Amino acid sequence: MPDPVVQIRGAGPVGILTALFLVKYGWAPSSVQLIDPGLESAQPGDQDDPRILALSQGTLSRLGQLGIDCQPVRIQRIHVSSQGHFGSMEIKSENAGVPELGGLVPYSQLLNVLRATIKREGLSINTQTEENAGAREPSVHVIAEGGLYQASDRLSQDSGMKVVVDYAQHAVIGWAETASAVGTIAYERFIPNGAVALLPMKNRYALIWCCSPERSDELTGASAGMQCQMLSDVMGGRLGAIKRVEITGIYPLGLKWRDQLVQANTVWIGNSAQTLHPIAGQGLNLGFRDAETLASCLLQRGRSIADRLQDYAQRRKTDRWTVRTATDALARASWVRRSIGPMTMIPGAKRLLGQVLMFGG
Questions:
Q1: Contact 34, 336 (CB under 8 A)
Q2: pLDDT tens digits, 72-105
Q3: Which pLDDT belongs to residue 43?
Q4: 222 Cβ contact partners less than 8 Å away, ≥ 6 residues apart
Q5: Max CA-CA distance within the chain?
Q6: Which residue, 152, 300, 319, 334, could crosslink 361 as a Cys pair with Cβ 3.0–4.6 Å?
Q7: Cross-strand pairs, 92
Q8: 100, 78, 76: which is closest to 88 by C-alpha?
Q9: Burial grade of 212 (CB within 10 A; 0-12, 13-18, 19 or more)
Q10: By the 8 A CB rule, do 257 and 184 touch?
Q11: How many other CB atoms sit within 10 Å of the CB of residue 343?
């Protein structure tokens, strides 16, 4: 008896990883349909996505299980501090007993590697055209579509996906070049209304500056020299002289959440199930864990599809809620920023934070 057809809507990283894990675990490739209207266009819009993704050690391990090497820039240390508050924290890979804490990769680079792997595995890759007319009716619909938070999401027709928090912040993303050499340390600097992350990418830093809309307007409207000075002031001289700042994108920040992950034979994963603040870089990592868990639940042959999907929803409760709570607290709670210095005095605090960043909730 052939495996039931699983149709995955969304050929982004989470949707693709779901398909790859299904096949790895023994699902017939002919029973996996990957659907994305823009997949076969000459230049899909997401190829231009300027974001740099932070992949946890757990995510890199999952990719390694599938024989995928996206050639990330490895991170050995994460330096965490808070502007205007005492102390800082440095999380080191050697203290966590691993070679590195994770890696950084451009979105388009990861997507290209994953799509090349899909083709090598002989999976069904289609657009929503007549090509699908003769296909078997799917028994499982996986919704892996979903993008960045937008202010208009409050008016979304999708009643299952709720806007929980509009953070009244913008993420300004881009690049920063420094006079000193770029090492393997990632910086997370909390500021009064947001945070700044500087992620080492070979000879420059990827910049993610979360701040008020007014501050983002001020930053983008400033001269080149003033942008360098603004970043230097925020970082407190930790990087030395800032030579150049290049802004590549701006988007609003909010928390969107789906309480009910399963309805009949439809399941929502990744950004279609939750969209988080980027302050801890955990959104994609959480989506990858969605993908692997869903694949393992679907492989429970002998159980009904409904039971398999309900099992998935139950398994994902704790991890989703833990990451949501931690991310939201980092984004909003001022006491968290004040606690960074004192946390260094708590036995095991750094190791625990390192484990969360590497492997999730």
A1: no
A2: 999 888 888 888 776 677 777 776 666 778 899 9
A3: 46
A4: 230
A5: 67
A6: 319
A7: 77
A8: 78
A9: middle
A10: no
A11: 15
Task: Name the amino acid, one letter, at 40.
Answer: E
Nearest CA among 70, 52, 58 for reference residue 208: 52
Please state whether beta strands 262-263 and 266-268 pair in parallel, antiparallel, or not at all (unpaired): antiparallel
User: What does the pLDDT average to over 334-347?
Assistant: 60
Distance from C-alpha of 163 to C-alpha of 161, rounded to nearest angstrom: 7
The amino acid at 21: F
With 0-12 / 13-18 / 19 or more C-beta atoms within 10 angstroms meaning exposed / middle / buried, residue 104 is buried
Q: What was the pLDDT predicted at 343?
A: 58
- Amino acid letter for position 110: L
Q: What is the pLDDT of residues 283-307, one digit of tens each?
A: 999 999 999 999 999 999 889 999 9
3-state SS record for the chain: CCCCCEEEECCCHHHHHHHHHHHHCCCCHHHEEEECCCCCCCCCHHHHCCCEEEEEHHHHHHHHHCCCCCCCEEECEEEEEECCCCCEEEEEHHHHCCCCCEEEEEHHHHHHHHHHHHHHCCCEEECCCHHHCCCCCCCEEEECCCCCCCHHHHHCCCCCEEEEEEEEEEEEEEEEEECCCCCCEEEEEEECCEEEEEEEECCEEEEEEEECHHHHHHHHHCCHHHHHHHHHHHHCCCCCCEEEEEEEEEEEEEEEEECCCEECCEEECHHHCEECCHHHCCHHHHHHHHHHHHHHHHCCCCCCHHHHHHHHHHHCHHHHHHHHHHHHHHHHCHHHHHCHHHHCCCCCHHHHHHHHHHHCC
pLDDT tens-digit series, residues 20-47: 999 999 999 999 999 987 655 544 455 5
| CA nearest neighbour of 16 among 131, 136, 145, 147 | 145
- Whole-number Å distance between alpha carbons of 278 and 197: 10
| Percent of the chain residues past pLDDT 90, beyond the cut | 58
Separation CA 114–CA 196 (nearest Å):
29
Residue 84 — left, alpha, or beta (φ > 0 → left; ψ -120 to 50 → alpha)?
left
Q: pLDDT tens digit string along 185-237? A: 899 988 888 899 999 998 999 999 999 999 999 999 999 999 999 999 999 88
